[in-house]
Amino acid sequence: MIEKLINLQKNSYSPYSNFAVSAIAVMKDGREFVGVNVENAAYGACICAERSAILSAISNGYKKGDFKELFVMVSSGEIGTPCFQCRQVISELFDKDCVVHCYSTKGEVKDYLVSELCPYPFGEEDLKWDVDLLV
User: Fold this and answer.
1) Confidence band for 104, pLDDT divided at 50, 70 and 90
2) Is 101 a residue whose pLDDT tops 70?
3) Cβ contact 100:70 at 8 Å
4) For residue 23, which of 102, 96, 97, 76 has the smallest C-alpha distance?
5) How far apart are CA 114 and CA 95, in angstroms?
6) Is 102 in contact with 109 (CB distance < 8 Å)?
7) Does the structure show a pLDDT above 70 at 102?
8) DSSP state of 13
9) What is the rounded distance in angstroms from the CA atom of residue 107 to the CA atom of residue 120?
10) Nearest to residue 72, comparing CAs of 43, 112, 27, 42?
11) How far from chain centre, in Å, is Cα 50?
12) Mean pLDDT score of the chain, rounded to an integer?
């Protein structure tokens, strides 16, 4: 998987940060979806590699719970973990016991369970409110 991640980084569009990120979402049926970070001058509109890969799977008909694992690599030479926007998406769509494999370009890897990366997830239960409290 490390070679795939390294080669995939060549597709990153990161002219502002020069910080390439690649990700591969693996589904429970074995299919893989790739993603890279895509920057633009309006930084808030940038897309992360993790979300790119995950949203590609969703766009191809996969659903919450279909994800098996996620592989991520950053170009800094160090192990990097998903940002908090990506963690929100991961916590929504991946099972808590799925593994996120975080690689360095040197081949080092650190594995995290989704429950470790997202110990206090914000989900649909947090969006429910009690009508009686408004009276």
Assistant:
1) very high
2) yes
3) yes
4) 102
5) 7
6) yes
7) yes
8) B
9) 30
10) 112
11) 3
12) 93
pTM as predicted: 0.91
For 42-57, what is each residue's pLDDT tens digit?
988 899 999 999 999 9
Contact call for residues 36 and 89 (beta carbons, < 8 A): no
Q: Kindly report the CA angle at 98 between 11 and 87, in degrees rounded to 5?
A: 60
Mean pLDDT within 24-50: 95
SS3 94: coil
Residue 108 annotated to the active site: no
What secondary structure letter does DSSP report for 66?
A: -
User: What would you report as the CA-atom Rg of the chain, rounded to the nearest whole angstrom?
Assistant: 16
By residue count, the chain amounts to: 135
Q: Report helix, strand or coil for 36.
A: strand
In the set 3, 50, 116, 124, the catalytic residue is 50
Distances (CA, A) of 64 to 48, 57, 100, 102: 19, 10, 16, 21
Q: Is 34 helix (H, G, I), strand (E, B) or coil?
A: strand
Tokens of 92: 């929504």
